[in-house]
Design goal:
By secondary structure, this protein is mostly helical. It is 64% helix and 0% strand. Helix 2 runs antiparallel to helix 3 (68-94) and helix 3 packs antiparallel against helix 4.
Length: 138
Amino acid sequence: MTKSSSKKLSILDAKYWFKDRCSMGVNGSPLRGPGLICSLYLISCIFGLFFTWSLSIYKIYKNETSSRLQLTLYTLITGGWSLIALRFMYSACYICNGIRGFILVFTIGLVINSVLLLLFGKLYKEFITIPYENKNVK
């Protein structure tokens, strides 16, 4: 059996949305892979993902004002979106479309975060004020 050359692309793959824009190298193969700017962006996304998850886990165990179910659901949704965006951005950077991929992820992220703000507005307020809490000031 031979594989078909027109394989179906995933919607999470940047090749589904953009054409390959990588320039050709000296030996005739395309110069692929995340460059410096894309690599720094992807690394910062990974650090942000771990920070958000650790903050969410901290809030789940601290659990002063919000329900654990709501916090868990919020953590799963934001973590899932972050992983999807990270996967998509890596594939966009791999085919030299980092800017276009960033614009698409940013636009979809605005919509998703607007919906999450409507659903989890109280949690957003709690997450924003955690780093600025001062127990000594009343």
